[in-house]
């Protein structure tokens, strides 16, 4: 019997973990045909938004699947995708899954040798790339004897050269009669079929291909829905790379699961503009994103008159009191609830509205330890960042804080329903469960399991749990510093203490097999000029000028001393170098998911680091 379309106010019926992504797409087209599913702007960021409904998405991906089938793509084939967050990427991903193929996204900042490794490892015969810049990188692989790549599909019109234009993949309508093999493969996925392969970002070696099945992704989606509080068909701003597990879940799989509305943001630097337009109910950012937003707001606040800042500070104090009460698991008393409601309505919401965050009910972060001072800053606006933890190998989130089940600021929450978590004798976090991956892809197409005999995965992260079951991260096992005296130091702990001062935007602590720690500190490009303006430093000075200014150096000295006062003697930084140039993915110091590549930074600044030891 055909079911009647549901209204926008009704939540999607909860799918079971046995469902596949094509089944969710079919459900959305049947039950929510007129609801918006995908919106995007022209790639230059100007112009009107285009929107596809879930019914249109279903029709479009069927046409696109037929186009890929005509290229010879079939069940089990890997197809590489290197594009920004644009509709060709999102729709191709779903079309390939409907065809039974396995989409594999590649970071746009991947080095040629990483691209070559991935192409050889997954044996893809087809790659879909954005434009002329990507074609130049990928073309040599067509002649590489060790790579099976045969064809490039190019998204941008006019950039195809002699390669296949993406627009040519869209027969209108799908050929009738439908080819027998295409009809046989379309939407025939089973729960244990591979849904995607996600390559790790390669911070410590060559990227590894993490094979994830429909069953694992659906289990994680169900587990996440059990701990979040979101309105039906919630909006999601999609700006992180699709090659990152966070955006795969948040920007593709969860929207299909929830029948929600994805806004594509091809340029991550424009995410603030999109947030102000959409005013989303949920917003996810890796720690560096929340740090930059925090620095920008602090810079604005620092330029306000004293009387206005005092009003904001008073409202923030009430918001933090309200958050602390909830953190303890208590219902805020009526008097506090009234004060918070008034502070929020009169002071905090207008400030949040200026940035498009006034409707946020679920703010989240993951990927690296979140600086507690940044979380505390946002708590002062009534925005509690629900820090989470997980790996590509756990299909994303394994533990999370939750407004529904409880949170502890500074922790990464408790395990979601699809995983178990335990600690090894040395504190290494181990996980097992429904959403833990199948294994790593081998070049021959087989999958190498990384689990022990009982199904546990050693994650490489170090942590501890408290009496209420909340997990607290210490650091990556491989990144722990061991001093010449044999003391173990968590660099992330020290770095986050240093970054509590607004002037310090980024920090790297160094000292393995040394007698003391040193640090590279990067002056915050947004906070530094604002600080200078309020402290009598020449306002036309560049960030590079400010690095050498005596007043700025003196303030950074005080910031380092303040951090050291809260650290043990082994953790204290004895010397530092102050830098003006921000680290980023384009210059290689950060991964595309904005985690530090410590080895790259240490190599780049080897002379400066040696100088701090007088070598």
Automatic annotation (TrEMBL):
Residues 26-441 form the AMP-dependent synthetase/ligase domain. Keywords: Fatty acid metabolism, Ligase, Lipid metabolism. It comes from the Bacteria. It holds the Pfam family AMP-binding_C_3. The keyword Ligase applies. Residues 1-20 are annotated as: Disordered. Coiled coil: none annotated. Belongs to the ATP-dependent AMP-binding enzyme family. This is Acyl-CoA synthetase.
């Amino acid at each position: 019997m055909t079911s009647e379309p549901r209204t926008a106010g009704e939540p999607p019926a909860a799918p079971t973990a046995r469902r596949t992504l094509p089944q969710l797409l079919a459900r959305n087209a049947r039950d929510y045909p007129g609801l918006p599913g995908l919106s995007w702007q022209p790639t230059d960021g100007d112009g009107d938004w285009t929107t596809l409904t879930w019914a249109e998405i279903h029709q479009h991906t069927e046409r696109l699947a037929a186009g890929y089938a005509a290229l010879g793509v079939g069940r089990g084939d890997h197809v590489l995708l290197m594009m920004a967050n644009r509709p060709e990427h999102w729709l191709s991903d779903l079309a390939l899954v409907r065809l039974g193929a396995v989409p594999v996204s590649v970071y746009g900042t991947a080095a040629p040798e990483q691209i070559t490794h991935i192409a050889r490892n997954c044996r893809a015969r087809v790659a879909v790339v954005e434009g002329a810049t990507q074609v130049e990188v990928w073309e040599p692989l067509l002649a590489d004897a060790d790579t099976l790549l045969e064809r490039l599909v190019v998204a941008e019109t006019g950039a195809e050269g002699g390669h296949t234009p993406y627009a040519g993949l869209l027969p209108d309508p799908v050929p009738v009669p439908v080819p027998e093999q295409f009809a046989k493969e379309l939407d025939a996925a089973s729960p244990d079929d591979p849904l995607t392969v996600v390559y790790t970002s390669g911070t410590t070696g060559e990227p590894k291909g993490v094979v994830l099945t429909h069953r694992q992704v659906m289990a994680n989606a169900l587990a996440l829905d059990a701990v979040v509080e979101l309105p039906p068909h919630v909006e999601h701003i999609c700006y992180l790379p699709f090659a990152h597990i966070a955006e795969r879940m948040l920007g593709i799989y969860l929207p299909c699961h929830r029948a929600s509305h994805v806004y594509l943001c091809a340029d991550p630097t424009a995410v603030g503009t999109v947030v102000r337009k959409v005013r989303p109910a949920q917003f996810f950012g890796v720690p560096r994103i929340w740090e930059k937003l925090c620095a920008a707001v602090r810079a604005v606040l620092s330029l306000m008159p004293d009387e206005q800042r005092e009003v904001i500070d008073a409202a923030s104090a009430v918001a933090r009191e309200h958050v602390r009460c909830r953190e303890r698991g208590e219902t805020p008393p009526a008097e506090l609830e009234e004060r918070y409601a008034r502070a929020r309505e009169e002071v905090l919401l207008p400030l949040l509205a200026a940035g498009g965050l006034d409707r946020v009910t679920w703010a989240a972060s993951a990927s690296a330890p979140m600086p507690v001072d940044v979380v505390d800053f946002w708590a002062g606006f009534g925005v509690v960042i629900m820090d989470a933890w997980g790996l590509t190998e756990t299909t994303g989130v394994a533990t999370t804080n939750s407004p529904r089940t409880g949170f502890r600021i500074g922790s990464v929450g408790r395990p979601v329903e699809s995983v178990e978590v335990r600690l090894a004798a040395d504190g290494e976090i181990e996980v097992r469960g429904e959403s833990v991956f199948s294994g790593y892809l081998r070049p021959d197409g087989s999958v190498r399991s990384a689990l022990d005999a009982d199904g546990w995965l050693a994650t490489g992260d170090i942590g501890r749990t408290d009496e209420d079951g909340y997990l607290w991260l210490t650091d990556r096992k491989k990144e722990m510093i061991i001093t010449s005296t044999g003391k173990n130091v968590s660099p992330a702990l020290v770095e986050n203490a240093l970054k509590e001062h607004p002037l310090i935007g980024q920090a790297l602590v160094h000292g393995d097999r040394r007698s003391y720690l040193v640090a590279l500190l990067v002056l915050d490009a947004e906070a530094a000029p604002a600080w200078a303006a309020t402290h009598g430093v020449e306002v036309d000075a560049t960030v590079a000028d400010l690095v050498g200014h005596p007043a700025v150096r003196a303030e950074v000295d005080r910031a380092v001393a303040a951090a050291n006062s809260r650290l043990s003697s082994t953790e204290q930084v004895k010397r530092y170098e102050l830098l003006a140039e921000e680290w980023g993915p384009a210059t290689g110091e950060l991964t595309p998911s904005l985690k530090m590549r410590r080895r790259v930074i240490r190599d780049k600044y080897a002379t400066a680091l040696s100088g701090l030891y007088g070598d």
